[in-house]
Write a structure and sequence with these properties.
By secondary structure, the chain is of the alpha+beta class. It has one domain (about 5-125): Tetrahydropterin Synthase, Chain A (2-Layer Sandwich). The protein is built from two helices and five strands; from the N terminus they run E-E-H-E-H-E-E. The chain has helices spanning about 55-65, 85-105, and strands at about 5-15, 30-40, 70, 110-120, 120-125. The chain has a five-stranded mixed β-sheet with strand order 3-1-2-4-5. A hairpin with a 2-residue loop joins strand 4 and strand 5. Helix 1 (about 55-65) packs across helix 2.
């Protein structure tokens, strides 16, 4: 039996966006306090009994979110060809965190990323192997 551990950390960032082509108020630039939960899978534990130090995952998430924080997401390269919807932001962060994690902790992998645009509206993104 293969063991798997899923660790998660939370972060947040503040950013504005607009949804070009949207038929309602969201077509106008507006802001959110975005909540982010990153989930990381580990199979092996180190000598201390940890799959990966939470501090390391938090650091990677903070680095990824710093690129988005206090910006207008529409002005950033990842969203130059697509609306910065919660779905697209979740996919972007999943891929960004996956790259960062692969460089620092090759035995671990991002399993999913959840984005909350508001307290009652969330999206989760993952990729099937």
């Amino acid at each position: 039996m293969k063991r798997k551990y899923e660790l998660s950390v939370r972060g947040e960032f503040c950013a504005a966006h607009r949804l070009d082509g949207y038929p309602g108020n969201c077509k106008n630039t507006h802001g959110h306090n975005w909540g982010v939960t990153a989930y990381v899978l580990c199979q092996a534990l180190d000598g201390l009994g940890m799959g990966l130090d939470f501090r390391e995952i938090k650091l990677l998430l903070r680095e990824a979110l710093a690129d988005l924080d206090h910006s207008c997401l529409n002005d950033l390269a990842p969203f130059s060809q697509q609306n910065p919807t919660a779905e697209n932001i979740a996919r972007h962060l999943f891929q960004d965190l996956s790259r960062r994690l692969a460089q620092r902790a090759p035995g671990a992998q991002v399993s999913r990323v959840r984005i909350a645009e508001t307290p009652g509206a969330e999206v989760t993104y993952w990729e099937e192997p």
